[in-house]
Write a structure and sequence with these properties.
320 residues; mainly alpha; two-stranded antiparallel ribbon; 11 helices
Length: 320
């Protein structure tokens, strides 16, 4: 799979970093500027397996949402979102009630991968994972380039609009990583006459699926400015200068989860209150991470669009 290579072009330019002003809002103090250490993308995947995405947000009243300011790139683009919702309305919703859990996952992933293909991103494999935590509906697995689905969430009582939003959320994570990998290819192109997979691997580490690197090399071309900007931002966040600060946020959250478990076991109300406060603060910082704020917004917009398609003339919404 890693036989692909790309020759260095005559000239290539990167987006001007001074123009990259669109970022998710972040806390002014603390988490994003201390505790540097080596970061790997598995921190993201471990976190999603442990606490889930939107499910955890709904369980915590203290976790505030963060504002996202970003150009409409890829799955965030309104045309892509409308096409995804139309696809689910036409091919998923009519057969949802009569479909098995496995078939539901296949239907949703077919719609997801159609959109990923439309924006030039490698499609994702998929599988059901019964061992996933109840609060975790789905997660993107970087090392195998697949989305794992929680069968409990795809049960007969599943809220279809929420399913549609959450899987679009996970697809956005795939897009984020793919554009970051393409940015790594761009860096390698400027450093090597002929770029091979190992040159990209040096930049992104061992946790990235070989198929994603091979696809990025095979499909390499100059991205438009908006795509290149997103790729640069995500590269810095996952693999570059921001990586150590990103790990600090995940480390704090993992520590807060452990403290919360211990506090619950202790039975002491004051200890539990302090642990809950720390967990909410840590989770708020997690929500502010650029990749999470971005993917959450993308998923929620898809869910809202699907629900809006069922709105009655009086303004209420019918449940599919």
């Amino acid at each position: 799979m890693e036989a692909a290579q790309v020759a260095k072009p005559v000239s290539r330019t990167q987006p001007d970093p001074s123009a990259l002003t669109d970022r998710a809002s972040q806390p002014e103090e603390g988490l994003l500027s201390r505790l540097p250490s080596t970061f790997t993308p598995q921190h993201i995947l471990q976190l999603q397996r442990t606490i889930g995405n939107q499910a955890t947000i709904r369980l915590l009243n203290g976790a505030g949402s963060q504002r996202v300011i970003q150009r409409q790139v890829g799955l965030l683009d309104e045309d892509q979102r409308e096409a995804y919702v139309e696809d689910t309305l036409r091919r998923v919703e009519p057969v949802w009630a009569a479909s098995s859990t496995e078939e539901r996952l296949r239907l949703i992933m077919s719609a997801v991968n159609t959109r990923l293909d439309a924006i030039g991103v490698l499609g994702c494999g998929y599988e059901l994972q019964p061992s996933m935590a109840a609060t975790n509906y789905a997660h993107f697995e970087l090392s195998l380039w697949r989305i794992q689905g929680n069968p409990a969430f795809l049960s007969s009582s599943a809220d279809l609009p929420q399913v549609i939003g959450d899987y679009y959320h996970e697809a956005r994570h795939a897009e984020q990583f793919y554009r970051a990998i393409r940015h790594a290819v761009h860096i390698a192109v400027n450093s090597h006459d002929v770029v091979r997979p190992e040159h990209v691997r040096e930049l992104v580490g061992d946790g990235v699926a070989p198929s994603a690197i091979a696809h990025a090399l095979d499909d390499y071309s100059v991205s438009n400015d908006e795509e290149a900007e997103l790729g640069r931002r995500m590269y810095e966040h996952f693999f570059g200068d921001e990586a150590a600060a990103t790990q600090a946020v995940y480390d704090r959250l993992h520590a807060a989860m452990a403290e919360l478990d211990a506090a619950r076991a202790s039975g002491d109300p004051e200890t539990l209150r302090e642990a809950e406060d720390e967990f909410r603060a840590a989770f708020t910082a997690y929500e502010a991470l650029p990749n999470e704020a971005d993917s959450r917004a993308v998923g929620e917009l898809a869910e809202q669009a699907f629900r809006a398609s069922h709105a009655t003339p009086g303004g209420s919404t019918t449940t599919p």
